[in-house]
Amino acid sequence: MSDRTEFRRLLLTGAAGGLGKVLRAGLKPLTRTLRVSDKAELGPAGPEEEVVPCDLADKAAVHSLVAGVDAVVHFGGVSVETHFEPILQSNIVGLFNMYEAVRKHGVRRVVFASSNHVTGFYRQSEKIDVDAPVRPDGLYGVSKCFGENLSRFYYDRYAIETVCLRIGSSFPAVKDRRMLATFLSYNDLVELVHRSLLTPRVGHSIIFGASDNAVKWWDNAKAAHIGFAPRDSSDPQRERVEAACPPLDPSDPAGVYQGGAFVRAGPFDD
Ligand code: NAI
Ligand code: 15L
Q1: What CATH number is attached to the domain comprising 231?
Q2: Whose Cα sits closest to atom 44 in ligand 1?
Q3: Which residue, 38, 108, 229, 258, shows the most beta carbons closer than 10 Å to its own?
Q4: Residues identified as active-site
Q5: What is the percent of the chain with per-residue pLDDT over 90, rounded to a whole number?
Q6: pLDDT band, very low/low/confident/very high, at 270 (cuts 50, 70, 90)
Q7: Which ligand gives the minimal distance to the CA of 91?
């Protein structure tokens, strides 16, 4: 992990969330000031921090939020499959507000928390790379496809660089058999975000976020320029997880597709 202070001011959205809390600590070495934002409670500002509450769906608030930052680490938004309305407001309207603010304020780079659920309808027996057509496994996955496409447009039209991180499952520990393939340790997450911020030229890049797990569904060869080399692995947790979690019934789609239980969520708008 780098300990260089490269940025004057970085913005972290979603800072009250599970990964936001990890990055709130993990981004400090890279920046003189870390501006943290969320619509949920963020607590008091720590040293060299600015706390700026903001609902991403509020255009004016997002435009103020982005003023004066060098780069954005955008982790705010709905993070699970649910009804369309909250996804629409946070992940679609909210992301558009963010990119418009980034454009207007001349910010040059965004790190966007995409998700493995943009390709959740590939089978667990398949290995894919970033050129595989998207196969979202729900409305949440569709909203992350929107984010990947919106950021592509802002790069082609305005040369704003984005790294889209198709994060697997980033939690303190492996919770089930699927996560033996999708696990991204917190240390590897922080390293991935550091690489996404520090690599000199990223253009519009998409990279899968997984640790060096023995079972691999994703090939990151086309994102080698990011220089991400995960150090952790789910493997030391395999024995515990296999003992605790019996295999799923072979006919259960959650055990067939990469998106796991997300593929059987919904419908939500009946
Ligand atoms: P989380 O749900 O714990 O955190 C998301 C944060 O975004 C929350 O604090 C929430 O208050 C905030 N938020 C939601 N809507 C907002 C809005 N309209 N305005 C302002 N803030 C809003 O989720 P987690 O696990 O920390 O994930 C962070 C990001 O990474 C999310 O974008 C998620 O989709 C993505 N991701 C996470 C994965 C994981 O394994 N944890 C896997 C793949 C993607
Ligand atoms: C995600 O995109 C979610 O944000 C996270 O909560 C997990 O469900 C993760 O994917 C996963 O696939 O395990």
Answers
A1: 3.40.50.720
A2: 115
A3: 258
A4: 140
A5: 96
A6: low
A7: 1
